């Protein structure tokens, strides 16, 4: 299954709250020389992206964008209509 493929994402900086959330959702976080390496099954990364609160996503914009690129998820469209 493609969704169970393990992915690794290297990010330069990420807030501790985001790293903590990703750990709780089952992803591995390793400290590297110039940042962090986030790894885990692609399906878990998809779930993690859905659980990141909007405020945290704004604060950690670069990190969230890198995660989205690796998984292949476009930025969600904001719709004011319901």
Name some characteristics of this structure.
82 residues; three-stranded antiparallel sheet; 44% helix; alpha+beta; 3 strands
Distance between the termini: 35 Å
Count of helix runs? 4
**Low-confidence stretches at least 5 residues in length (pLDDT < 50)?**
none
Number of strands: 3
What is the string of helix and strand elements? EHEEHHH
Strand content: 15-25%
Shape summary: globular
Summarize model confidence as the mean pLDDT: 86
What portion of residues is helical? Answer: 40-55%
Structural class: alpha+beta
Major sheet strand order: 1-3-2
Rg, rounded, reads 13 Å
User: Describe the biggest sheet?
Assistant: 3 strands, antiparallel
Would you give an account of this structure?
The mean pLDDT is 86. With 82 residues, this protein is α+β, with helices and mostly antiparallel strands. A 3-stranded antiparallel beta sheet has the order 1-3-2. The protein is built from 4 helices and 3 strands; from the N terminus they run βαββααα. The protein starts with 5 loop residues before the first strand and ends in an 11-residue tail after the last helix. The protein is globular.
